[in-house]
Amino acid sequence: MTNPVGAQNTGEPNRDSDRYDRAGSEYIGRDQHNSGSPTAGVPAESSSGYERARRALEEARASARAAGKSVGHGRASPARRPRGSSSRRRWSGAGPDSRDPQPFGRLVGSLARDRGWEPQIAEGTLFGQWLQIVGPDIAAHAQPEALRDTVLHVQAESTAWATQLRYVQRQILAKIAAAVGDGVVTSLRISGPKAPSWQKGRRHVPGRGPRDTYG
């Protein structure tokens, strides 16, 4: 039987045909791998596991983006500075600024309000500046003794001066309010000089009281 033209039947396997088949299968495998499907070339029993892994990876990337991390590097993205900001030191302008030096009295007043020291400071101001508050005439004849529950106890040097101070009590309260604030002193309790005592020392016995001196 005559062979086709160009074909030689030597009884050996056709190496060119075998090479073509192997190359063809390789080309087919590449086409399946590059077909665009993420599961191309993956066995059916492992495709579901591949899908689960892919979804887990996508969720991890989404979580990283929400946390501000650069996906794939594991580091936080650098914070963006607002437009117009500069790292150079800024100086305050001509207007008032919280960074400007503050008066000492204002700082002390703010500290007293925060710590609740205002009543003690008002009382100290009242007793320490009594002369400037009420004037030299009243200060020369009456002195504050104690401040209890917004009532100022004042002692006059004589009964006459005690009576006179009761007449001008409203004016004295107005001067005190202007100096230490409203509500610190609401009323005055003015008294005359104290009667002398004949008691000597810390220990004493009561007297016998009235007695008959007519024999």
UniProtKB/TrEMBL annotation:
Pfam families: DciA. InterPro entries: DciA-like (IPR007922), UPF0232_actinobac (IPR023007). This is UPF0232 protein GOOTI_159_00030. Residues 1-12 have a biased composition (Polar residues). Residues 1-106, 191-215 are annotated as: Disordered. Residues 78-91 have a biased composition (Basic residues). Residues 13-33, 51-62 have a biased composition (Basic and acidic residues).
